Amino acid sequence: MVAQLHLLQQMKMAFPVRLLLFLSSLYPVPISVFARTDGKVDPGDFLSATAGNSSSWLSPSGDFAFGFRQLENSDLFLLSLWYAKIPDRTIVWYANHGDSPAAVAKGSLVNLTADNGLVLTSPQGAQLWKSESISGVAFGVLNDTGNFVLQDDNSGSLWETFDNLTHTILPGQDIEKGGKLWSQQSETNFSKGRFELRMQDDGNLVLVTINLPTEFANAPYYASDTTGDSNSSTAGTKLEFNSSGYMYVLRENGEKLTIKEAETVSARSFYLRTTLNFDGVFVQYSHPKIFTGNVSWSVVWSVPDNICTMTIDSGLGVCGYNSICTLRDQRPTCACPKGYSLLDPNDLYGNCKPDFIQGCEEDKLSPTNDIYEVQMLSNTDWPLSDFMQLNPSTPESCNQSCFEDCLCAVAIYRVETCWKKKLPLSNGRVDSGLNSQAFIKVRKGNLTLPVPQRPNPDDKKMKNQTTLIRMGSALLGTSIFADLMLSAIVCMGFFFIYQKKHSFLPSFTYKELEGATDGFTEELGRGAFGVVYKGILPIGSGVPVEVKKLNCAVQEGEIEFREGEIEFREGEIEFRMEVSMLGQTHHKNLVRPVGYCDEGQKRLLVYEFLGNGTLANLLFGDTKPSWRKRIDIVSGVAKGLLYLHEECSTQILHCDIKPQNILLDDCCNAKIADFGLAKLLMMNQSQTFTAIRGTKGYVAPEWFRNMAITTKVDVYSFGVMLLEVICCRRSIDMENVYEERAILSEWVYDCYLKGLWDPIVDNEMEALHEKTKLERFVMVALWCIQEEPSLRPIMKKVVQMLEGVVEVHVPPCPSPYSRAG
Asked: Measuring CA to CA, which residue among 164, 167, 169 is closest to residue 145?
């Protein structure tokens, strides 16, 4: 084939076009090889995603190209439009479905069709994206403006990239009312970020942050102030970026409000683009069309002037929580204070976490009062994290007040006033106009709380040591040996007392939690592990928590050993150790444990309070949540389970994954609750043995077959829940047990075999518009609920399949035995 193509290219220079077309009919050469020079593309033309320089369609001048670009450090390709003549080939538009880029595997194709416009398919032929539901496409054309247009026989526009905005606007392009640009997540991640430029229906052009995964917008950090009602002549009508490179809001009365007063750069001599960057800055760039050497984009103007100092009323600001924003070359950079580090080392603009444990209970447990040192920063502030203001004050008294307050993380002193702040700190910035001092509390390096050591489950140390003591005393009978053994016992006792005192999670007395819950009056829910109550811890103005009373009436696993005045209980020791390990689990999709109580039969766990209810309430309520919200939630659950199974310090099986155990925070982020309880309540407790099998409808078959229990039981339960999330229906419909959809998994599999997608999502258009993703999620769920555990994927592969990183093969029937005969 290579030799044939080379021959044809040589002949193309010497023979007429008719002969070339005749020869091309004899050889199966891709049509896109003979790209037209007028920027036009005919129905039937196609491009393929290949490594290296993929084929592309060019504009007449060759300034712009449309085709596949391989993503950095990835095997995936992005269907996009870019500047073709400059070295970095800057992308100005890309295909996307929902909030995600249409990233595809090698061998994927984009075809121009007369009936469906541009159609993107996988190497297996599955449709991944299409321009729109249009017909009558006569040809496509990539203009020198960078606009790819599908036209009819009369050259009328049917669809164009200029009307399908992403992150960049080009000269000649407008943004009408209701239109918006959105930022990427990062320089290399083209998924939807949390910044948007919106041309609102009231005529106001605003820059806002949104609380993903919702579309809720916080107060603007920039606004053109061109608002007005329908009768106002000063209201904005659209944002125009004219062909000369001048950008303005056009008012109803014809006036033009310039976005930023700056020297206009000629679009004849320079490439111009205006991009909403991933860090929230709206920037106009220029690049010379004729250049030599290493030339890059230059900033013409940017809005706002200093995004670091723009306070966002709610949320985390430009940088993540506990981070500090500094403006450099008109762009923000983020950094963690001393003693803090990035939660995700790969996200330089993400959240920072303290590298030490700070809290009232932890401060009490420290062996000395001199546990903190101060980091002092000038002109630095986190303006939205105050919990107390002191006036009058001095720098010394401000610093001292924070040191003596276990809730205080940072104190800011300015103009005889002290502002005390607690974690998390938001909207951190450096501002030379503040004239302030920041005192940050950092735990001294050699004063960290000890990490409790996990007992070896195969070695009952207490029992063996006690037995050896008794045998040694009987055999030797010497006072010296007895003294040595007694000393060892005493030391061991102090060790366990020390371990209890220095648990990563603070312990509460039963009386304290009884008071916090007002006598356990407000019940939030109940399940196999116990009953959950709402409580308020008396810290500051009150911290809301959830208090779970565990079902621990029978403690068969406890064996007492006595030696002199010291008493050990294996069950209590094991419980405290496991609680300590739970305290070390940190993941954004796990509910955070904040304490515990262990007083004999009274065992309670204290968790952060999440006021947005459970996933069950969201799925099975009166209002159906959006498809985007549902898939974001279930993707979060998958990542949380992956952490429990493979990424935390000790493997944790949940054993009761269901929508009732998935809580939602204020932004509808999923958080797994009750993780580790099966381990805490111990398998040798007869009362708990049945309970930890899970909940009817979500239980893996191996529980009833005397098979080994592994992480695959959680995978099964997750698969059932994934189907519930997709369909917004319960796994078992007890009210209609005789209908065909009573058992959700069997009904979905039948629909899948028949290719019936509409009934699965009850004709939900948002889901059907992402049919490829819908099909992928259903197939993943069917793999997860296979009766044979070995056929189920591990959670790492589940996450990869949901994200589209690995291919999902056709799943077999989940329950072949029930369908036999």
From this structure: 169
The C-alpha angle 661, 733, 771, rounded to 5 degrees, equals: 75
Catalytic residue of the set 381, 598, 632, 656: 656
Q: Indicate the range of 349-358, 403-412, 550-559, 764-773 predicted with least confidence.
A: 550-559
Distances (CA, A) of 235 to 181, 240, 253, 256, 716: 20, 14, 8, 11, 56
- Fill in the DSSP letter of residue 449: P
Q: Which tokens belong to 543?
A: 């911290």
Annotated active-site residue 152? The verdict is no
Residue 636 vs residue 504, higher pLDDT: 636
SS (H, E, C) 604-646: EEEEECCCCCEHHHHHCCCCCCCHHHHHHHHHHHHHHHHHHHH
Q: Which residue type sits at 292?
A: T
Q: Return the structure tokens found at 274.
A: 């205006």
Are the CB atoms for 711 and 719 separated by under 8 Å? Answer: no
Number of helices followed by number of strands (H, E) in the chain: 18, 47
| Domain 454-609: homologous superfamily in CATH | Phosphorylase Kinase; domain 1 (3.30.200.20)
What are the pLDDT digits (tens) for 475-486? 334 343 444 344
Give the pLDDT confidence of 313-326 residue by residue, as tens digits: 666 678 888 999 99
DSSP string, 650-699: S----S--SGGGEEE-TT--EEE-STTHHHHT-TT-HHHHTGGG--TTS-
Residue 367: predicted pLDDT: 57
* The predicted structure's pLDDT at residue 350: 86
The β-bridge partners of 653 are none
Q: Band the pLDDT of 682: cuts 50, 70, 90.
A: very low
Q: Which two tokens stand for residue 1?
A: 């084939």
Domain ranges of the chain: 199-305, 324-443, 454-609, 613-821
Tell me the average pLDDT of the chain.
79
Nearest Cα neighbor of 11 from 26, 29, 28, 24 is 24
Range from 135-139, 512-516, 592-596 carrying the lowest mean pLDDT: 592-596
Residues 273 and 168: their CA atoms lie apart, in Å, by: 7
d(CA 390, CA 419): 6
**Interval 518-560: pLDDT, tens:** 999 998 887 666 789 999 988 766 788 999 888 754 333 332 3
Cα–Cα nearest to 58, from 183, 146, 152 = 146
Q: Is it the case that residue 79 has pLDDT exceeding 90?
A: yes
Other beta carbons within 10 Å of 760: 23
Tokens of 484: 């040595």
CATH topology classification for 324-443: Hepatocyte Growth Factor (3.50.4)
**Phi, psi of 300, rounded to the nearest 5 degrees:** -85, -50
> What is the per-residue DSSP string for 505-568?
SPB--HHHHHHHTTTTTSEEEEETTEEEEEEEE-STT-EEEEEEEE--S--TT--EEEETTEEE
Candidate from 1-5, 27-31, 107-111 with smallest mean pLDDT:
27-31
Q: Helices 712-727 & 771-784, crossing angle to 10 degrees?
A: 150
Which residue type is seen at 757? W
What CA–CA distance (Å, rounded) separates 490 from 127?
71
For 754, phi then psi, to 5°, come to -90, -5
pLDDT in tens, 793-810: 999 999 999 998 888 999
Residue 574 is predicted with a pLDDT of 59
**For residue 37, what pLDDT is reported?**
61
CATH number for the domain whose boundaries are 613-821:
1.10.510.10
Could you tell me the two tokens for 591? 């509910």
More confident position, 22 or 610: 610
Q: Is the peptide bond before 60 cis (omega within 30 degrees of 0)?
A: no
- Interacting residues of 505 by C-beta distance below 8 A, sequence separation 6+: 579, 580, 582, 583, 593, 594, 595, 596
